[in-house]
Design goal:
This protein is mainly β and 416 residues long. The chain folds into two domains: 114 residues, no CATH class; 218 residues, no CATH class. The chain is built from no helices and 28 strands.
């Protein structure tokens, strides 16, 4: 069956001293009869005073039969001098619903005016689940994205490739995901209501890290900073350049070199488990300063487990009721990935959460457990946190030995 898909939304540009908006300004994508929907369009408004109860939208259309994907949200930018009489929650650039196909990703809303002198960027997908990285923030010529606030909300999936400097808040909330390939500096970072902060997958030639610096970092009990399985690649994983032969797929290790062989688990702070059919890669790194991802396990056929990724945090206060984890992957078969790396430098650490860099569990047939990773925590005050909830355990093996435990260092620093 054939039919017409949806058009994208159009373009609106408005300059006004006063905008009294009781109706709607919209550049929405089309919902077609069949197939893929149109994306939201573009709106820019430069206004002195913005008043009213109206709406400004660049929402995508919804996909329709057969297997029509939802459109992506559009882009809205509002530059204002006075908006006390307008509710900014009535400005939206949502992705569209897919019909037996993926939903569209959130668009962007940019607000600049008093209280947002460097601009506030919002990605909100109206609780519509979309694929990871479905809202990329384009890189700037300077390689620096500077805002007052960046809010990733309600199932939006944002990727930022620049270093991000915020004078205010990074908010990741209500099932949203935030990925930054470079450092994030903010006054406040708040991860709540199922929010996730993570980094990109390691490739055959590049690794990444979560790199956060804030006065106050909060991760509530429903949320996490999670780089599980984002370290060096397991044997047989796409992109791993060390297949050996069809029945001996080596894991990758530090330096993007060949690592564990046979059915062995990956190593980092602890040695991966090995049955003698091949061997685990050597341990590496400095327990005082974890700064590498974990290593992948090996397999005879099929994909083994990736190592855990890398997390670096500097904060004056860390309120952790959720979890910070850099665990190795438990694969479907054979050797598990090792735990990754976590370093935290903090003034006050408190909460009921956990910090882990544990190895994955080896799987049938005869898969070695992943070695534990490395965790280092330097703090001034941790009275409100149970440091026994910091672990870098080796993973259980399935026949071969378990992975060995990695390293955990927790050290109180003197006040300056």
């Amino acid at each position: 069956m054939f039919g017409e898909a949806g058009n994208g939304g159009g373009l609106i540009r408005i300059v006004a001293q006063v905008l009294n908006l009781a109706g709607a300004i919209k550049a929405d994508g089309e919902t077609p009869t069949f197939y893929g929907a149109g994306s939201g369009g573009g709106i820019r408004i430069d206004v002195g005073t913005l008043n009213g109860t109206g709406r400004i939208t660049a929402n995508a259309g919804n996909g329709q039969r057969d297997n029509g994907g939802g459109g992506g949200g559009g882009r809205i930018a509002i530059y204002y001098q006075n908006a006390a009489g307008f509710d900014f929650n009535r400005i939206t650039a949502f992705g569209g619903i897919g019909r037996d196909a993926p939903n569209g990703g959130a668009g962007t809303v940019y607000l600049q005016g008093p209280g947002r002198e460097n601009g506030e960027l919002i990605a909100d997908n109206n609780n519509l689940a979309a694929v990871t990285q479905s809202t990329p923030i384009p890189p700037t010529p300077t390689g620096l994205s500077a805002f007052t606030n960046l809010r990733v909300k309600r199932a939006a999936r944002v990727r930022v490739d620049d270093q991000t400097n915020l004078t205010g808040t990074l908010e990741v909330s209500f099932g949203a995901e935030f990925i930054s390939a470079k450092r994030v500096l903010a006054s406040t970072i708040d991860v709540n209501n199922g929010g996730i902060v993570t980094h990109l997958f390691t490739t055959s030639s590049a690794s990444f890290k979560v790199d956060l610096s804030a006065n106050t970092l909060t991760v509530d009990a429903t949320s996490k900073i999670d780089v599980t399985a984002l370290g060096f690649l397991g044997g047989g994983k796409p992109g791993n350049p060390f297949p050996g032969n069809p029945f001996n797929n080596s894991g990758m290790t530090v330096g993007f070199e060949r690592g564990s062989t046979g059915r062995s688990g990956g190593s980092y702070g602890g040695l991966g488990g090995s049955s003698g059919e091949g061997s685990a890669s050597p341990v590496y790194g400095d327990f005082r300063d974890p700064n590498e991802p974990g290593s992948g396990g090996a397999s005879f056929s099929g994909p083994a487990g990736n190592g855990g990724g890398l997390i670096r945090i500097v904060a004056q206060t860390l309120n952790l009721d959720g979890i910070i984890k850099a665990d190795g992957e438990t694969p479907g078969l054979f050797g598990a990935g090792s735990g990754g790396g976590v370093r935290i430098d903090v003034g006050t650490l408190r909460g009921t959460g956990q910090i882990t860099a544990n190895g994955g569990t080896g799987q049938p047939d005869s898969g070695g457990g992943g070695g534990g990773g490395r965790v280092a925590i330097y703090y001034q005050d941790a009275v409100g946190f149970d440091l026994t909830r910091v672990t870098a355990l080796g993973g259980p093996g399935s026949g071969p030995p378990n992975g060995q435990d990695g390293s955990v260092i927790t050290q109180q620093q003197a006040f300056p």
